[in-house]
Amino acid sequence: MNGSRAAGLILLLVFLLLSASFCCAALNASQNNQLGAEAYRAGDTARALDYLRQARQDQPYDEQIRKNLAVVLLARGHELLRQGRYRQAGDLFQQGQELAPDDTRFLLARAHALVAEKAYAEAEVVLNEALGIDDQQAGVWQLLGRVDYLTNRLEEAIDAWNRALELDPGNTSLQAMLAKARREAKVESGMEQSYTSSFVLSYDAAGDPDLGAELLDVLHQAYVELGGNLDVYPAGQVPVLIYTRADFSRITASPDWAAGLYDGKIRIPLGGVKQVSAPLQAVLFHEYTHVVVRELAGNHCPTWLNEGLAELAGRGRFNPPLRALEQAPALLDFNSLTGSWKNLPAAEVRLAYEQSYSFVRYLVDDYGWFQIGDILRDLGAGASADDAFARVFGSYGLSLAELQQQWKQDLGR
Predict the structure, then answer these.
(1) Is a pLDDT exceeding 90 seen at residue 22?
(2) Where are the alpha helices (DSSP H) in 100-171?
(3) Cα–Cα distance for residue pair 4/20, rounded to 1 Å
(4) Cα first-last separation, the chain
(5) Which residue ranges run through the membrane (predicted)?
(6) Which among 119, 129, 224, 347 has most CB atoms closer than 10 A?
(7) Mind listing the pLDDT tens digit for each residue in 281-292?
(8) 194 - beta bridge partners?
(9) pTM, rounded to two decimals
């Protein structure tokens, strides 16, 4: 594109934006209200918001305009929430709350946005404000229980979820969360706890009294190393729980091959451990990587990338041979490794981990951590894996499929 054409397109875009703003301002409040309602019915909440804000500015005491603007603020906020734009969504919910101070939907939605940002203390304040207006809202009690759960207050979470279940007895997902919390509380009541500003560690009270400090030291090393690589340092304290294998299986229902789990808390089946060995350090680094990946990408990261990064971090501490990858007659299709691995055949699990690690290591070695961080952030913003890789590696002229092909060639496959 030549310079004059680019300049012309920019001028046209500016003209269109100014024209849209001018049109809103040139219409009267009734017309803007009508156009806003039509845009909302057509599913264009962003445009509806522009019209209704102008209408509200022109007629600040019109009740129908106030109600319409509140409805659109709620709808637009939920759209932004689904897109992972939590801060902007929370701002809209707060604006809606100012228009409808007794409508707890805005408070609940704002609390969801705050929880997504891990602003748990602020979310708790907002949820208690909602309960002050109406304490018969099951959804508010349920989210309050989640805040308690995520901040390692199991008994408070159980109380809140019991109240939610009284109000919504048919909620099967809530029943499952409550049952899980009760199992955890039973196991964790006898555990020792150690703390840092970034971690809350719970472990077998019968173990070595110095073990907690050693485990926290390894976790801090992971925090610093991965934070430096990906430029992210999660806020708040990450709960880390060391279980016996039997307790781990009861609480998580994980497959037998699982060496750990991250579900908002790092859970590791190593009860009775006496020393922080190299394999244990690897597990801690591996599981903490999942914390960082979720911080950047939310729940949108393909499993092969998530596990590949975790293996890369863990193998910096303990790096056994890649026997499954070396001996496999054929590689697994990465498309089959995008979702959960829970139902993978046992014979494929080790290959899935080693193959994912090998490809991610190839990416980091050849292109660097900076690109990986950009991919994770794009995924968190809602991009597909193909689109995220195309944007980040577009300057190299490479797609995800082409990168995978290059990696296979390097392996001699």
Answers:
(1) no
(2) 104-116, 120-133, 138-150, 154-167
(3) 24
(4) 40
(5) none
(6) 119
(7) 999 999 999 999
(8) 201
(9) 0.77
Tokens 């599981």 -> residue: 287
**C-alpha span between 168 and 199 (Å, rounded):** 34
Mean pLDDT value of segment 297-317: 96
Categorize the per-residue pLDDT at 16 as very low, low, confident or very high, splitting at 50, 70 and 90: very low
User: Is 94:106 a contact under the CB 8 Å cutoff?
Assistant: yes
Q: Over the stretch 64-93, which tens digit does the pLDDT of each residue have?
A: 999 999 999 999 999 999 988 899 999 999
Virtual torsion, Cα 129, 130, 133, 137, nearest 10 deg: -150
Question: What are the distances in angstroms from CA 110 to CA 74, 96, 129?
Answer: 10, 10, 11
State how far the alpha carbon of 240 is from the alpha carbons of 93, 199, 261, 262, 285, in Å. 33, 7, 10, 9, 12
Average pLDDT rounded to a whole number, residues 186-194: 85
Q: How far is CA 169 from CA 177, 183, 273, in A?
A: 13, 20, 41
Q: What is the predicted pLDDT for the residue at 15?
A: 47
Is 186-289 a CATH 3.40.50.1580 domain? no
Query: What are the structure tokens assigned to 67, written together?
Result: 């109600």
Structure tokens at 184: 């955890």
Q: Minimal CA–CA distance to 150: which of 247, 237, 234, 232? A: 237
Amino acid at 267: R
For the chain, the domains span 186-289, 298-413
Q: Give the chain's length.
A: 413
Nearby residues of 382 by Cβ (< 8 Å), 6 or more positions away: 83, 84, 300
Residue 147 near residue 123 (C-beta atoms within 8 A): yes
